[in-house]
Design a protein that fits this description.
The protein has 312 residues and is an alpha+beta fold. It has 2 domains: 178 residues, Sandwich (Immunoglobulin-like), CATH 2.60.40.1820; 123 residues, Immunoglobulins (Immunoglobulin-like, Sandwich). 16% of the residues lie in helices and 51% in strands. β8 and β9 form a beta hairpin. The relative contact order is 0.14.
Amino acid sequence: MNFFYKLRESLKTQPEFPGGSSRRFGNFGFWKRPLAALTVLCAPFLTNCGTLNSVLREPALSIHSVEVAGISFTGVNLLCRVNVENPNPFDVPVPELEWELFVQDHSFAAGTVKSAGPVKARKTSVVEIPVNLSYEGLYNSAASLGNAGEAAYRIALGAKIPLPVFGDQVWRLEHSGALPLVRMPSLGFRGISVKNISLDRLEFELTWEIENNNAFALNLKGLDYVLMVNNSQWGAARMPGELVLEPGKKTAASLSLSISALNMVREITGLIARGADLVFACSGAARLGGGLPGLDDIEIPFNFNGTAKLRK
């Protein structure tokens, strides 16, 4: 086999990127010249393809792992690690890696990773590819996900290294898996009810409703509130302990409020007796978390306003 014929023919190839779209993989001219020069210098001593292959060997690329590096109520971060093994007695350039993320066979993100420095002779380098996905963008684009707890994804990779004899070699790699899907819980305010009335003390119950739209349980880790009624502050408190929010269900979270100031007790008792409308504003924040390993806690602020009649 004629060496120079093979070299010339191999450099003509321009493969396609995964998914069918033709893309270039960066400018590798800097590396072509020294490697081509090495081939020319060695050519008088290389008499056949078998001898060439014993001196120049293709690097090996493989996906080492893909893992969830971070997850929150707003998105998920994946980290893809690619092994680049150089079996040759000389350094080779680390390839540019172009990646594309598909969810439910729809393209959602793409990018290019450039690594500094070569892969040392007879060594293996690991190239890390961070892939970030927004849940909002995903849910807006993929209505078919419905209330699913996970979604099938695929990462397609393309890499090219210019090598003499072998030409500009292109590797196509793919990894498939399942993404955990996280949805923001919804928070509502049921209102205020009277639990007990006495001459020197009033007891109320404030109730919130939290809907967990996820396929896994969550924990309500805290709830702070300030309650204003008719422009007067009736109370401010924090929920003690935690409350489990079952998947796919609505859960009531209730807190008790006591008022013992005599002037307020008389005023509020009169309002209740007359059946007067009360203008209230309840503001604060709920902190939720748990459910999935690595899931970050989230704080959901709230501000509910309205009118109500208090009845025992």
